[in-house]
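Just curious: can you write a single protein's sequence together with how it folds?
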Amino acid sequence: MINIDELKFDGNGLIPAIVVDAITKKVLTLAYMNRESLKISIKKGKTCFFSRSRGKLWLKGETSGNYQKIVSIVADCDKDALVILVEKEGPACHLGTDSCFENPIWQERNFSGYSIDSLFELLKGRKKDLPEGSYTTYLFQKGIDKILKKVGEESTEVIIAAKSNDKKETIYEIADLAYHVLVLMAEMGITPDEIRQELDSRHIIDHKVKQEKMTGKKK
């Protein structure tokens, strides 16, 4: 561990802070801190920055409610930049987007960039635009009952494939099930982050139970 006095602030007393989602590892924003805002961040456990345009401190989420709970703060090798892992509550950008970095400039042609999050964003776009000829559009147009029926059917297909000990077919059917579950999530307004948070809460509970067993403590 290093202390604040070892950090190298620039001529204006600032240090860049790259804020990253602790769960998805997505870069959320680039902001700046001075000594005071960094101390406040550490004390409160929430990001506090220095606004260069307004010339004052601002606690992220103080007006919007979109707080960022700090998981860790790490300095780079030169100690003149920070990476802050956070658990965010709501959009990170003041424009209402998940991240401030939403404007692609260039991407390698063969890089798919696939992720559960990118697929979910695609499905949300399908729900909004309802392009003709899309199977996803068909599901959204048919509504919740059709979507639930497909989730049930795909769950059965996973069971059948796994019972047959067919790994390749099971992978294929799990992918189908995952897709239809994501469609259901988009239909109900459930985000991947909410699922991650639920799983993370279970992990914390499980960890506490293990600790209690090891120490002999009981609730």
About this structure: The first strand starts at residue 15 and ends at 21. Residues 116-209 form a domain with the Helix Hairpins fold (CATH 1.10.287.1080).
